[in-house]
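> example.struct
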């Protein structure tokens, strides 16, 4: 039998003004999306023998051993588990780990989940990371984290290439236009470039509307073998390529403030898939901040170094534009529950299955998903297709 791993189910949790609807905990939210994603694939929790999750959830104790806590809560005993955490890039990395585990026969059905109640818990702040270990050399100076590190990268890009705040605002406005087409998005009201430029400063040159939302959320992705998918009558989504890279933790140790690790992870994923950036129909790129998107576009090769500002100008990435980007509204307007990477995957799969209604990208066959973690510290890239 074929051991070709494929994605067969995805789910995310309904939100009401950025909070879980109808409420609950990170565990109960993950249980809901797990059931929904498995049901989409014609499977149940009893079929799951591989479990992948990440995140401390802001809860002492359970956050230290998330796969053990979650498997106990779900009532399963997986043969394979992985709670590796590289920030928002964790879930694209988990897709790669699940792919290898299925391909090698270590498991047959892999469940990837994430859940957070950071908005309900009011657990997000600019206090950032404790000034210990390697962070001791940065944290003591009071730079707001992680936004301060991204602001440094934006400042460097502006100095080196002439990028402007208007260029960054183009990204926020285009993403909001996608969100307006998504009934599940947290922020759907109209947004202009002037609105972004006039919003309160957070860490110069980044303003409030350059920054992701703070919401609750939960998501799930299910993988199994192609044969199993066909037997269940499910149309599979293929993982054609993947790559991972990490270069630093503290922003002072970033090798080049204008080149994130997605340059390496994207190259590996595209090479494995045997495609080039011009072959990609839909791009789902982590948008913790507007500068994250611009740097990732350049790093993966959708445009050259320093060309990101021109690339996104004139609403090129908005609905109806030449480049379909962050089609559910992204972390800037859809949701951002601490780590956003799993929602990049759910949206890419839905686009490739043609399920996105008013925001559907016509003829979408190949999607690139790129998660970013830490302070431009880690990246994990997946290339997906429906053929």
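> example.seq
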């Amino acid at each position: 039998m074929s051991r070709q791993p494929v994605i067969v189910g995805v789910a995310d949790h309904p939100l009401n003004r950025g909070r879980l609807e109808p409420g609950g905990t990170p565990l109960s939210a993950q249980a809901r999306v797990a059931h929904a994603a498995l049901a989409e694939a014609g499977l149940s929790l009893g079929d799951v023998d591989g479990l992948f999750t990440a995140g401390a959830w802001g809860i002492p104790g359970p956050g230290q051993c998330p796969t053990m806590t979650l498997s106990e809560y779900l009532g399963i005993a997986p043969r394979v588990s992985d709670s590796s955490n590289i920030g928002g890039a964790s879930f694209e990395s988990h897709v790669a780990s699940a792919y290898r585990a299925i391909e090698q026969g270590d498991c047959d059905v892999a469940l990837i989940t994430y859940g957070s109640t950071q908005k309900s818990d009011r657990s997000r702040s600019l206090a950032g990371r404790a000034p210990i270990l390697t962070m001791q050399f940065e944290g003591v100076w009071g730079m707001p984290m992680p936004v301060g590190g991204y602001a440094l990268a934006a400042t460097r890009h502006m100095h080196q290439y002439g990028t402007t705040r208007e260029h960054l605002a183009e990204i926020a406005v285009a993403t909001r236009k996608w969100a307006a087409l998504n009934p599940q998005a947290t922020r759907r009201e109209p947004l202009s470039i002037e609105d972004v430029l006039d919003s309160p400063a957070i860490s110069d040159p980044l303003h409030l509307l350059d920054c992701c939302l703070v919401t609750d959320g939960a998501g799930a992705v299910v993988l199994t073998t192609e044969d199993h998918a066909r037997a269940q009558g499910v149309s599979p989504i293929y993982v054609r390529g993947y790559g991972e890279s990490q270069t630093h933790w503290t922003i002072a140790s970033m090798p080049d403030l204008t080149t994130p690790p997605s340059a390496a992870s994207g190259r590996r994923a595209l090479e494995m898939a045997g495609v080039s950036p011009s072959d990609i129909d839909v791009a789902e790129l982590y948008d913790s901040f507007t500068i994250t998107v611009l740097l990732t576009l350049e790093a993966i090769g959708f445009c050259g170094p320093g060309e990101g500002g021109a690339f996104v100008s004139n609403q090129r990435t908005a609905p109806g534009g030449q480049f379909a980007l962050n089609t559910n509204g992204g972390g800037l307007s859809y949701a951002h529950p601490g780590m956003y990477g799993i929602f990049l995957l759910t949206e890419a799969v839905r686009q490739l299955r043609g399920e996105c209604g008013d925001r559907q990208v016509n003829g979408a066959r190949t999607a690139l998903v790129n998660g970013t973690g830490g302070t431009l510290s880690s990246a994990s890239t997946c290339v997906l297709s429906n053929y």
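> remarks
Residues 165-180 form the longest helix (16 residues).
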